[in-house]
Amino acid sequence: MDAVKITFALPKGHMYEKVSQLMEDAGFHIISNGRNYRPICSDSRFELKMFRAQNIVQMVDLGRHDIAFAGHDWVVEGNAKVVELLDTGFDSVRVVAAIPESFGTIDSLRGRRIVVASEYERITRNFLDSQGLDYFLVHSYGATEVFPPEDADLIVDNTATGRTLRANGLKEVAVLLSSSTRLIANPEALTGEKGRAIEELVLLLQSVIDARRRVMLEMNVETSRLKTVLAVLPCMRHPTMSSLADNAGYAIKAAVLRDEVARLIPVLKTAGATDILEYPFSKVVL
Predict the structure, then answer these.
(1) What's the pLDDT band for 236 if we cut at 50, 70, 90?
(2) Which positions ≥6 away from 285 have C-beta within 8 Å?
(3) pLDDT digits (tens, 9 = 90+) for 127-178
(4) In which band, very low, low, confident or very high, does the pLDDT at 2 lie, cut at 50, 70 and 90?
(5) Exposed/middle/buried for 157, CB within 10 Å: 0-12, 13-18, 19+?
(6) Does 1 score more than 70 pLDDT?
(7) 198 in Cβ contact with 189 (< 8 Å)
(8) 155 and 200 share one domain
(9) Exposure on the CB side of residue 217, measured as CA atoms within 13 A
């Protein structure tokens, strides 16, 4: 009987580097195939193909591919009947409505027909209809922020920081949704052998994402200071402890959030921890 085959769509462009590195760190080596859009995965269950980000969601929705990495914004835009299995946190953006700063508020657009530019037709129409605005929608193909004020009264675009919008004299008037790169699946692929293989993939990818948020702290603690140190030491469940030679105290390990380390190490030192080590690790499986 043939082994299970899972068709896996990957995004071209700037998203590819991040998701391919995530796959590598999870143990799935991706081998480039020159200018061919079909890289090879070290796990032969996965058949890879690269697409533009805007096309991926539709391919999974249609069942042409079982799973894919895609932006949540394009899932919403396509009204796709897919399952989001994992949020990578990559390419976090907000899809916003913006107008020229000189316009004041969105109320200045009422009572007349306005021109709106966006790559997101469905998302934009839903927002404009909810606002009761009279509009003509122009589909943009990138660089949407250049349209106002001469060629559009309002735009709907994605932004990570808002810096580009402000540089072009625009201000946000509404946040329509938040988006990031997700692992999505066609629902029919989540049963049987395919479903089990996809579950394994999600487990490993999530373990890498969780590990990137944490570091391991290792320290020695005298018995008399043990309770004080444990009281200030966060961990996922319980710290790992082992006795030091000659009953001199304990060696303690705990995985802690990376963002908390700069604050935490001085606190641990004051509480009585010594010989504190910090180091990364590759996976966390809870």
Answers:
(1) confident
(2) 203, 207
(3) 999 999 999 999 999 899 999 999 999 999 999 999 999 999 999 999 999 9
(4) low
(5) buried
(6) no
(7) yes
(8) no
(9) 31
pLDDT tier at 125 (50, 70, 90 boundaries)? very high
Strands 240-243 and 250-257: antiparallel
**75 and 203 housed in the same domain:** yes
| Closest to 39 in 3D by CA, of 8, 15, 18 | 8
Residue 1 forms part of a structural domain? no
Closest CA to 233 of 211, 250, 209, 210: 250
Domain tally, the chain: 3
Helix (H) or strand (E) holding 204: helix 192-212
284 in any annotated domain: no
DSSP codes, 45-74: TEEEEEE-HHHHHHHHHTTSSSEEEEEHHH
Q: Do residues 100 and 153 share a domain?
A: yes
Structure-block tokens of residue 269: 């030192």
Long-range CB pairs of 71-74, under 8 A, 24+ apart, other chains included? 71/15, 71/179, 71/180, 71/181, 71/182, 72/177, 72/178, 72/179, 72/180, 72/181, 72/182, 73/120, 73/123, 73/158, 73/177, 73/179
Q: Would residue 285 count as lying in a domain? A: no
3-state DSSP of 80-144: CCCEEEEECCCCCEEEEEEEEHHHCCHHHHCCCEEEEEECCHHHHHHHHHHHCCEEEEEECCCCH
